[in-house]
Design goal:
alpha/beta, 39% helix
Length: 370
């Protein structure tokens, strides 16, 4: 008879077999999604060659399928490996603010905490709540029935005007908070929200992150516990608990927020470098990156102008040709004639003469041509 772990791995292999039958390039918006993913990897982790990005993107899409399966599988939490300071996941250490990231099977943290009897409040974006909330509620109810659990589970939408006060009350009532500290597409910075964000180092760029976690920790006097989820090559899910970040009473709250959020991203970085194909954040991290100032790059002297493939990518969006700036994340709708020209520059004797001086100069200034 097969063990639970063997049956679990068998189901994941079925997921993989199904995934491999999908022609991804025919999926709606695939090229634009991949191009954004590739630009994000290149800007944060330039050590990964661009030719490896396609493999990474496919790995991420497969991991997302595995993660969805784990939410439906009540026994998946029984098979999770705990590493690091995992004693901090026990009920007697409540309340805590558990900060995790969209890496690996990231929903397993909620499942593991709940089955340990911890009273949990999950803070999510509104879109995530609409798309995944019902599934998580069903998973929790299934665990409650299976294990006879009576502890509290509640979901709070991060975008709610009363979210901060609600969560603060829950923490002071002894309930633990679970937060995806790397954000989600709908929680990115918007005009007028500058005071809610602060800047942290992340890879080769700086990014904006909400400081609410640090504020709640300091205001409630509750430690932050970073928890990183990842899937090992043998398919086992791991939850790695890192050293807690403790607020100092009467200390400067703004300074604590800055230091705590930087520690959370510093703690995550080594795991991201080790498992880059498992981070869902590659799909939207550009929404949080601090804009870079445009700077002229010396491209060297060339007798024949060429298309700057290092900075720009050509792709189709809704059947319209698009020029995508991988550095500044700007898109420019172009004509089919210009797209065809950029793809076949080597066959043109005088690009400047064909384009006209004004457009030629603009494309040179933008570094589309060099």
């Amino acid at each position: 008879m097969r063990t639970t772990r063997q049956l679990y791995k068998q189901e994941l292999e079925r997921c993989r077999a199904h995934f491999e039958q999908i022609d991804l390039e025919k999926e709606r918006g695939y090229l634009m999604k991949y191009t954004t993913f590739s630009a994000n990897v290149e800007n944060l982790l330039p050590a990964i060659p661009r030719q490896e990005h396609d493999t990474l993107f496919r790995e991420l899409l497969l991991q997302q399928m595995f993660t969805s399966f784990d939410q439906q599988c009540l026994t998946a939490g029984d098979l999770v490996k705990l590493r690091g300071a995992d004693h901090l996941l026990e009920k007697e250490y409540s309340p805590r603010i558990y900060c995790t990231y969209h890496l690996g099977s990231y929903r397993m943290l909620t499942s593991v905490l709940f089955r340990k009897g911890v009273d949990c409040v999950l803070l999510v974006g509104s879109n995530m709540n609409r798309s995944q909330g019902d599934g998580m509620a069903e998973h929790i109810e299934g665990l409650r029935q299976k294990h006879g659990l009576t502890n509290v589970f509640r979901v709070v939408e991060a975008g709610s005007p009363t979210a901060g006060l609600t969560v603060l009350r829950e923490l002071k009532a002894g309930r633990s908070l679970i937060v995806y500290v790397d954000g989600s597409p709908e929680t990115g910075p918007k005009p007028g929200e500058e005071s809610q964000f602060l800047s942290v180092r992340f890879g080769h760029r700086r990014m904006l992150t909400r400081k609410g976690v640090g504020y709640l920790s300091h205001a409630a006097g509750v430690p932050i516990v970073p928890v990183v989820s990842y899937r090992r090559p043998d398919m086992a899910n791991v939850l790695h608990c890192l050293k807690s970040i403790k607020p100092i009473p009467q200390s400067d709250r703004e300074l604590y927020c800055q230091e705590a959020m930087q520690q959370l991203y510093d703690a995550f970085w080594p795991f991201l470098k080790q498992y880059p194909g498992q981070w869902e954040g590659w799909n939207y991290v550009h929404l949080f990156l601090e804009p870079e100032k445009a700077k002229k790059t010396y491209m060297g002297y060339r007798k024949q102008v060429a298309f700057n493939e290092n900075r720009y990518t050509l792709c189709d969006l809704e059947d319209a040709p698009i020029l995508f700036d991988r550095r500044l994340y700007q898109t420019y709708e172009i004509t089919e004639d210009l797209r065809d020209l950029l793809l076949n520059l080597s066959e043109v004797e005088s690009v400047e003469e064909l384009l006209g001086q004004e457009m030629f100069s603009e494309l040179m200034d933008m570094e589309v041509l060099y």
